Structure formats: structure tokens, C-alpha cells
Amino acid sequence: MINGALNSSPRYPASGHVQRCEARFKSYDPRSDTYLGYDGHRHTCNL
């Protein structure tokens, strides 16, 4: 049962990646690893 709980936890990108994306994109959301582009759509942060 414990393993199932651990496996179901959400996964987040590595913290260095998150820090770079947050520094570059003010609309960055680490839960989805996306930012809001000028086109009005969310895009994956590839930094």
C-alpha cells in the first residue's frame, strides 16, 4: 500500500530546471511545466 501511495505522487521537473523556467517566464507553472506564451497558449518549458 505504501508503494502505491509513493508511485501516485505527482512528479515535478528537477529544481534547476524549475528555477531557470521561473526566472525566464513569469507565467511558468511548475505543476504542468508550462508557461503562457504571447500567443495565449501554454507551452512546455524546454530550458
From TrEMBL:
Protein's cellular compartments: Membrane
The keyword Transcription is assigned to this record: no
Superkingdom assignment: Bacteria
Keyword Membrane attributed: yes
InterPro entries registered for this protein in UniProt: BA14K (IPR012413)
Keyword field: Cell membrane, Lectin, Membrane
GO cellular component assignments: membrane
Membrane association type: Single-pass membrane protein
One matching Pfam family: BA14K
GO terms for MF: carbohydrate binding
Function: Has immunoglobulin-binding and hemagglutination properties, and can bind to mannose. Essential for virulence. May be involved in LPS biosynthesis or polysaccharide transport.
Recorded family membership: Belongs to the BA14k family.
Name of the featured protein: Lectin-like protein BA14k
